[in-house]
Design a protein that fits this description.
The structure holds two protein chains of two kinds. By secondary structure, chain A is an all-alpha fold. Chain A contains three helices and no strands. In chain B, α7 packs antiparallel against α13 and α9 packs across α12.
Chain lengths: 118, 355
């Protein structure tokens, strides 16, 4: 556990550093309020609509869902990789089965066009 | 180190300050190196006005950004908008707490290690912490309430999660050979194997580095901030010091990716071909160098080689289109890295792997 105390310390300092710097910069930086200046940038045109009212492609959600599946798989691979020499052939075959099931899902997603952008 | 306060507070604090100082200074100077190298690639001179040959340019840039006006957009989600730069900077810096720069040495009779700590889940910790950075980008893009920022943030999130998967697979290929998650043990495994893992894991190395370039939103994968379509992407609305922190985080992340690639594939602090050329490295030509400087020197040389490749990419490749980017990640890298993973596992199983 003692190994993690320095990391905790580092996390605290790494979070405090930008906050403190931003606070100091806020105090000494120049600036004059102007209603035009604080408008969202839209190449100089008047704002036509709220940015968040616009809908965006459903593919972004699809990618996020697919990512969860694959990333969880990667997490399962980590302990397997560390213990691989001890597990030997049994571990290899078992992971082949595990990856095989996932590849079926991957091929299915590919065939259904989930990986196809546009 | 009988006093627990010295062991648990003072020594780590000194190391943290040194690491932070070096990383931030290096990130600042990386922008200078980038401008200079790009300039010479395009037959220009680059920044040469501030200081001798322009060497004070990053300091001037930092000072300028420090006193610049910090605009708070009227329609922005104020708290989240201000949280963005913090969320993106902190993880990029925290990762350096587990990266080993060399082996332990003795200083004033006390054992000192040139890294903050060596946890046994090192690489998992790095992957986890560096993933937090995406929150800073997507929240910053969303909170700005600007169409360009929103699109940039979305693209960035999709790109980062897409390339996270093949990156994880290629890291697992290294773990198969190293049998440990600790970064120090991974380097030591390369020492006992007598060969850098780049040779048995060439495919994994290639995939890791390309995914690393994509993860840091650098050319040719800089879709989230593609200036020809999205103005400046997720940081369009950011100015002054908040922009500076996004900038710092991007360059710190480049150093992170280069350091991890060095540790995983290029043998960390080991000299080239540690076993074949063992006689050469043990000759009196090199042995007068203190081991700390010798080890850290090799580490820095390798990291700089990667950083140069980063800049070289930027000077060479045109930008991907977004559908090409996604197709490359999902249809090329994932199958290739999966097959590579099975091949490496088979190799370790059959020949016992490099020892």
């Amino acid at each position: 556990m003692n190994l993690y105390i320095p990391i905790l310390l580092f996390v605290v300092i790494a979070i405090a550093f930008p906050i403190v710097t931003l606070a100091i910069a806020k105090l000494i930086s120049a600036g004059r309020y102007d209603p035009i200046k604080v408008e969202p940038y839209e190449c100089g045109n008047p704002i036509t609509s709220e940015a968040r009212d616009h809908r965006f492609s459903v593919r972004f959600y699809l990618i996020a869902v697919l990512f969860v599946v694959f990333d969880v798989e990667t997490v399962f691979l980590f302990p397997w990789a560390v213990m691989f020499r001890k597990l030997a052939l049994f571990g290899f075959v078992e992971m082949l089965v595990f990856l095989g099931i996932l590849v079926v899902g991957y091929v299915y997603a590919w065939r259904r066009g989930a990986l196809q952008w546009v | 180190m009988a006093n627990p306060w010295v062991a648990f507070l003072l020594v780590p604090l000194v190391k943290i300050v040194v690491i932070l100082g070096v990383v931030i200074l290096l990130a600042a100077y990386l922008s200078f190196f980038e401008r200079k190298i790009l300039a010479y690639m395009q037959i220009r001179i680059g920044p040469n006005r501030v200081g001798p040959r322009g060497w004070l340019q990053p300091i001037a840039d930092a000072l300028k950004l420090f006193v610049k006006e910090d605009i708070l957009p009227s329609r922005a989600e104020k708290l989240v908008y201000m949280l963005g730069p913090v969320l993106v900077t902190a993880p990029a810096l925290v990762v350096f707490s587990v990266i080993p720069f060399g082996t332990g040495f003795t200083l004033f009779g006390a054992q000192v290690t040139p890294y903050l700590t060596d946890v046994n889940i090192g690489i998992l910790f790095i992957l986890g912490v560096s993933s937090v950075g995406v929150y800073g980008i997507i929240l910053g893009g969303w909170a700005s309430n600007n169409k360009f920022s929103l699109m940039g943030g979305l693209r960035s999130a999709a790109q980062l999660v897409s390339y996270e998967v093949p990156m994880g697979f290629s890291v697992v290929a290294v773990l198969l050979m190293a049998n440990s998650l600790s970064l120090v043990k991974i380097v030591e495994a390369q020492k006992s194997a007598g060969v850098w893992f780049v040779f048995p894991g060439l495919v994994a190395f290639f995939i890791y580095f390309v995914c690393g370039v994509a993860e840091t939103n650098r050319n040719p994968f800089d879709l989230p901030e593609a200036e020809s379509e999205l103005v400046a992407g997720f940081h369009t609305e950011y100015s002054g010091m908040k922009f500076a922190f996004y900038f710092l985080a991007e360059y710190a992340n480049m150093i992170v990716i280069s350091s991890i690639a060095t540790v995983l594939f290029l043998g960390g602090w080991l000299p080239p071909f540690p076993s074949w050329l063992a006689g050469v490295w043990a000759s009196p030509v090199f042995t007068w160098i203190p081991p700390v400087i010798w080890n850290a020197g090799w580490f820095v040389v390798k990291v700089f080689a990667f950083l140069f490749v980063y800049i070289w990419f930027r000077g060479t490749f045109p930008r991907y289109r977004f559908d090409q980017l996604m197709a490359l990640g999902w249809k090329v890298f994932i199958p290739v890295s999966l097959v590579n993973l099975v091949a490496v596992a088979l190799g370790v199983l059959l020949i016992g792997g490099p020892r």
